[in-house]
Amino acid sequence: MFTRLRLVNFKAWSDTDDICLRPLTMLLGTNSSGKSSLIQSLLLLKQTARSPDRTVHLNLGGDEINDLFNFGDFDDVLNQEADAPRLFSIAFDFDNHATSRIAKGGFECSYGQTSSGSVVVQTVTLKAEGRQFRATRREKGAFSILVDDEQLPRAKGRGYAPERTIAFSAEAIAALDKDGQLVEDLSLAIRRELERIIYLGPLRRKPERDYPWNKTKPGDVGSDGRGAVDALLASALLRGDEQNYVVNGVSRWLSKMGVADKLEVRQQGRSNRYELIVHRDGVACNLRDVGIGISQVLPVLVVSYFAPRGSTIILEEPEIHLHPLAQSALANLFVDVSRERGIQFLVETHSEHLFRRMQTLIAKQDASSTDSAMYFVRRKGKSAELCTLEIDDFGRVKNWPSGFFGDALGETREQARLMFERQKASTQ
């Protein structure tokens, strides 16, 4: 689980300061305010960590098949404040003692640009067990390897450049001698934490009338939810202890949202094609013939049960095309699944209904400030600004930002004023 994030001079952010990340973290705010940049920073590191080229310092994307995002070039990532230095940095802490020898650790890296325009690591710092290890760029592409508070480098030269941002080179590991194993373990723990990220974007595929199945379990659902149906087919058709686990979880939440009673996988004759059947009020319909909201929320429900335990699921606008009651139920989904499966949810949303239900869950003590964090992002000049929403034990927000979900109270006052004016006019 990621526990802290900080961005400096990254896209819309001049400096986020330390952002506390909880098992459920919600990001709210206006369009183009900078919410997506927070999410994209972790996805940028994820696609760098899995790059086939180990010598790459930062993979800004461009491969439509393998990359999550195309970030453009250095200037597209760099914050455009006039007095900002031509460096940006990403830092995070993590805590996942259940699945790694390194229980807790930290990562921080600053990036610059070479004369040829390439993005290059300036300084990368890995932290764990009270220790820290740095690789700092010197002239002509050489790097110095420093440990803790030592003033003199353990090694320096061109062979000590970091790999895929998060790992020290084999030469650097060897130069660190007894500390080399700790650095190797730490790099592996950071890589695994990034690999555990699962991202589902706001644009998801429309349903088909039927689907083929290759009798295998997909690796992931994809950023557009393309693998969600394959995950459902595998859940229903592959024998084992977890057969129908995903299907049953999805059915349960479709029912709680009030959009369906259950979901069924049905084979078409003796062919290798299958259809998804939605049951509601005694009527069975093909997924293609029901409202678009069900097909759009389906990947959200699937990934919640298909993702390996301990994963971090990043969601953009999970509420899209859902009616208000179903949007509200998403809050219950995130709280329950996070607690049940050890899943971390980072959610970008515009849904007032989802947020209001979170307030209610906090008031009912079904969620707490130790399990959840909510932030409002707004624009301040060319840069973004983050407001931590202070919510008391009764779910009340102590520091409502201006323009938060519009002005509902003002609208009510205006409606009342107009009503009284018309009543007064009708009696004269």
Automatic annotation (TrEMBL):
<dbReference type="Pfam" id="PF12476">
    <property type="entry name" value="DUF3696"/>
</dbReference>
<dbReference type="InterPro" id="IPR027417">
    <property type="entry name" value="P-loop_NTPase"/>
</dbReference>
<dbReference type="InterPro" id="IPR014592">
    <property type="entry name" value="P-loop_UCP034888"/>
</dbReference>
<dbReference type="GO" id="GO:0005524">
    <property type="term" value="F:ATP binding"/>
</dbReference>
<dbReference type="GO" id="GO:0016887">
    <property type="term" value="F:ATP hydrolysis activity"/>
</dbReference>
<dbReference type="Pfam" id="PF13304">
    <property type="entry name" value="AAA_21"/>
</dbReference>
<dbReference type="InterPro" id="IPR003959">
    <property type="entry name" value="ATPase_AAA_core"/>
</dbReference>
<feature type="domain" description="DUF3696">
    <location>
        <begin position="369"/>
        <end position="415"/>
    </location>
</feature>
<protein>
    <recommendedName>
        <fullName>DUF3696 domain-containing protein</fullName>
    </recommendedName>
</protein>
<dbReference type="InterPro" id="IPR051396">
    <property type="entry name" value="Bact_Antivir_Def_Nuclease"/>
</dbReference>
<feature type="domain" description="ATPase AAA-type core">
    <location>
        <begin position="24"/>
        <end position="354"/>
    </location>
</feature>
<dbReference type="InterPro" id="IPR022532">
    <property type="entry name" value="DUF3696"/>
</dbReference>
